[in-house]
Amino acid sequence: MKFYNMKTKNHAKKMEMYYFILNSWLKAEQNGIRFSWFFKKHGYQRIGVYGCAELGDRVWDGLKNKKYEVYMIDRNAQLLIGKEYTVIHPDEEHIPDIDVLVITADFYYEKIKKEMEKKVTCPIISLKEIVDDLFSGQYPAEPLNEEKLW
After folding, report:
1. Is 148 a domain residue?
2. pTM, to two decimals
3. Is pLDDT of 147 > 60?
4. Would strands 100-103 and 46-50 be described as parallel, antiparallel, or unpaired?
5. Residue 26's CATH number
6. Does 149 fall in a domain?
7. Angle formed by the axes of helices 2-30 and 54-63, to 10°?
8. Residue 135 is part of which domain span?
9. Looking at beta carbons, which pairs linking 118-122 to residues 24 or more positions away fall under 8 Å?
């Protein structure tokens, strides 16, 4: 029974962490601060995204039409058939040359980072770091022009 309770507590902590990341990301977007600006600011063009669950899908959606090369990486690559993108397994011999690796599974960040440091030479950052950076005051807010929407 202790295992179940520990598993439940960890799941609750993970969901809480993801909630805060998504909420902050949404607040930034509502304030006219675009997620993709982080990558432009740092000159990242070839972006690896580790984690293809919901948060990874949102990162893909935020970058796919913005002239970036985006490579999705997940240890469950063989199960992720039918996604809009191709998924690379982290144990593949050749992970494409990337400028940055974003880990969307923030709850497992340290473990994944340690594993991926053996495979890539670029900076490895968490999704939370990106979202926190959006509130650094270094990005001009882009007013939403509703006329463009309709």
Report:
1. no
2. 0.84
3. no
4. parallel
5. 3.40.50.720
6. no
7. 20
8. 2-139
9. 119/90, 119/95, 120/48, 120/95, 122/48, 122/98
